[in-house]
Design goal:
With 146 residues, this protein is mainly α. It is built from six helices and three strands. Helix 1 crosses helix 2, helix 1 packs across helix 5 and helix 4 packs across helix 5.
């Protein structure tokens, strides 16, 4: 029996790995702008609201993250899953793929009810905060380069 995965499903699974990689593996909490920043640093792209929301919800359903007041952190199970997936990965890209595979193997592929509701306004606020942080970092680099 063959499982036919559409490009959209494969992209969703990959973006789940990016979100997993973007949450610190030391159990410390992070906010959405920093998750967006980390995904950009890993993949050199701006994650979409759907990808971010779906990834966070799948991680929550798998028991790998907790959240409160706009902050997200890995649970003990999430930290252990991240360690296992990253072990032997030659780089961050392989680690993200391995983490996406962990979610897939857990059977956490399709969101049903979404406990984390990321509104367009919340997402846009996080993106704007990320852009501000990015611009500030870029300006510091430009000044240091002069």
């Amino acid at each position: 029996m063959y499982l036919c995965l559409t490009d959209a499903i494969l992209r969703r699974m990959a973006s789940d790995g990016w979100v997993f990689c973007a949450i610190p593996s030391d159990g410390k909490a992070t906010d959405l702008p920093n998750v967006i920043w980390s995904v950009d640093g890993i993949q050199k792209l701006l994650i979409t609201r759907t990808e971010l929301s779906s990834g966070l919800n799948r991680l929550l359903r798998a028991g790998f993250i907790e959240h409160s007041q706009g902050r997200y952190w890995l649970t003990t199970e999430g930290i252990e899953a991240a360690k296992r997936a990253k072990r032997g990965s030659p780089d961050v890209y392989a680690a993200c793929d391995a983490l996406a595979e962990v979610l897939y193997q857990q059977g956490v592929t399709c969101p049903e009810a979404s406990p984390i509701v990321l509104t367009e306004a919340e997402f846009q606020a996080a993106v704007e905060s990320y852009k501000k942080q990015f611009e500030e970092a870029y300006q510091k680099l430009m000044v240091a380069d002069e």
